[in-house]
Each structure stands twice: as structure tokens, then as C-alpha cells.
Amino acid sequence: KGISKYGAISKLADILNIDNENIIAFGDGLNDLDMIKNCGVWVALKNALPEVKDLADYVTKYDHDDDGVIEFLKEYLTVSKIYLMKKSLFGQLIATENTQIMNNYTNTRVL
Q1: Alpha-carbon distance 60 to 1, whole Å?
Q2: In sequence order, what are the beta bridge partners of 84?
Q3: Strands 41-44 and 24-27
């Protein structure tokens, strides 16, 4: 009694001094809803219940059997990276932000 997924996340976050807004939580069922209120980013897997998807910040393209969590993280974390695209005539590296992935998902909330 009184044990929840978020309870475990919260204890670990306290130990590691991690703020809730820096936590990404994944789920697919009603027992995951306590994480929505407390974690910074809530991600529902493709196979999640409709009511869980409705509350999510993102819904994955893949379910848990097809590595939905890993595939989401690869794309989500790539959005914030800067890629070195080419060298200029003077040998300086030119960096450009990769926004293509984010543009693909801005309106759909699906990663």
C-alpha cells in the first residue's frame, strides 16, 4: 500500500538531486497516471490506453515491444543537438541546428 511508480522515481530523484521538470516518464496504463502530474515530460507509448495518450506530452511511434522508449529518446534527444555540417572556405566549422525532426512532430506530438 502507498507504493507507486512515481514514489520510486521521486525517491531516486531526491537522492540524485534531480528536479521533477528534468524527468521524462513513460507509460501505457492507468497505473502510470501519477507520473503525469509530477514529471516534466510525460510520454505515452503507442500501445497506451486512449485516456493515457490524451494526457501525454508525446505519443511514441512504436509500442513497448518495438523499443518505443529507446526510439523516442533517440529522436527527442537529437532535436537538441547541434551538428557540424561542413567546413567553410576558411576551414572554420559551421554548425547548424537540426530542426527537421522537431518540425516533423510539432503538430502531431508523436515521436
Answers
A1: 31
A2: 95
A3: parallel
Task: Report yes or no: 32 and 5 within 8 Å, Cβ to Cβ.
Answer: yes
Which spans in the chain are helix H? 5-16, 33-38, 50-55, 68-79, 100-105
Cα 6 off chain centre by: 16
Residues in Cβ contact with 27 at an 8 Å cutoff, skipping those fewer than 6 apart: 5, 33, 35, 42, 43, 44, 45, 48, 52
Q: Which of 57-61, 97-101, 106-110 holds the top average pLDDT?
A: 57-61
Tens digit of each residue's pLDDT (9 = 90 or more) over 38-94: 999 999 999 999 999 999 999 999 988 888 898 888 888 776 554 333 444 444 444
SS3 content of the chain, % helix, strand, coil (to 5): 45, 20, 35
What does the alpha-carbon distance between residue 31 and residue 8 come to, in Å, rounded to a whole number? 13
